[in-house]
Amino acid sequence: MATIEVLLPIKNALPFLPESIESIRTQTFGDWRLLILDHGSTDGSADVAWKYAEKDKRIVVHVNPDASGLGGLLNFGLGKADGRFVVRQDGDDISFPGRFQTVVDVFSSEPDLIVMGGEASVIDAAGRGIGYIEYPGPHAAIVAASFFYNPVAHPTVAINLSRISHIGEDLYGKDILKVLPPDKSMKISSLAEDYFLFGQLALLGPCRNVKVPLIKYRWHDQGVSVSKRAAQIKCALDISRFLAMSFGAMKGTSVFDPAPFCSHADNAFDCGLSDYSSEFDRMAQSLEQGLGWSSELARELAFRRVLAKRNPAVMTARYASFAFKNGRRAKEYHVVRNWLGRFVTDKNVSRVEGGVAPWR
């Protein structure tokens, strides 16, 4: 049994796959096993994977073209894994050499931790650096943010399986909280399966992101976040609402609709109103009651309050005051900018059918 089990799902991952595999083979921590999960590639990716398996016995290839989406493929991989920690990587991303050592060090120092992730340098198809993705660090910040966007980068994630063994092998795509009636529950197989899982795990136990880059995240036109962006955003919004309902049931607090305050893919969400102050007050009361006060929650709510008033002058003034007191983060700035610039281009504004959900 290896200390680290790596799940690397692929479907037509060329030409990036060799570099991705090599980044695992050159890790400074060597007690790992790589499970390459082929979802029916037709571009020769599977052949590349088999060649690596022949020369490195730590690499195992499993072919499952019939798996139900990425979530089903990852559940299949979890069924094959027997390591202490499961690490995720995509076939077009690159792990920094010390990533696995960081995983072992963090879980050793925090044995109760369920999930750890980290930050990412962003590269283009040619491997050129084009940006950096920052994520909230401590658990209080992650759970506060989880109602509004996915605060964990899936390809950076490591999971401590011993802390969630009671859930079973199938982690992706299902309601693991089980606090809602069947007609309010969710089940998904693709698109935002990572947000669905880690949003729920954040409500169950400690998670955190290390404030260092663990991978080079490749941004290109064939990525799901680009090719299926609209469908992914809609699915993510449904998950935000599911998490809010589940939170209310778990904590005995008022259920709120997070939709007007969400920022999936840096989008602003339009539920048809110009003033969401009452919705914000309801949400803030529920989160403060259910989570308890923390500086991380206070900061998250302070930014969501910026989005409560959609008058351009008011929003601009509120954001300026917020950024002065709390610091400027790119994702938050982009959301405000996208709303204020919606008359120039509305491609980063999502209109919510039905408006604010009338939950009471």
Explain this structure.
The chain is an alpha/beta fold. It has two domains: 224 residues, Spore Coat Polysaccharide Biosynthesis Protein SpsA, Chain A (Alpha-Beta Complex); 99 residues, no CATH class. 39% of the residues lie in helices and 17% in strands. Strands 1, 2, 3, 4, 5, 6, 7, 8 and 9 form a nine-stranded mixed sheet that branches. It has a two-stranded parallel sheet with strand order 10-11. Helix 1 links the parallel strand 1 and strand 2.
Second CATH tier, the architecture of the largest domain: Alpha-Beta Complex
Q: How many domains, as an integer?
A: 2
Q: How confident is the prediction overall: mean pLDDT? A: 95
Q: Which quaternary structure do these chains form?
A: single chain
Please identify the top-level CATH class of the largest domain: Alpha Beta
Strand content bin? 15-25%
Helix content: 25-40%
Looking at the structure, the CATH topology of the largest domain is Spore Coat Polysaccharide Biosynthesis Protein SpsA, Chain A
Number of strands: 11
How far is the first residue's CA from the last residue's CA?
Answer: 50 Å
Please trace the helix and strand order, writing H or E for each element.
Answer: EHEHEHEEHEEHEHEHHEHHHHE
The CATH homologous superfamily of the largest domain is called Spore Coat Polysaccharide Biosynthesis Protein SpsA, Chain A
Indicate the radius of gyration in whole angstroms: 20 Å
Shape: globular
The SS-based structural class is alpha/beta
| Unreliable runs | none
Largest sheet: 9 strands, mixed
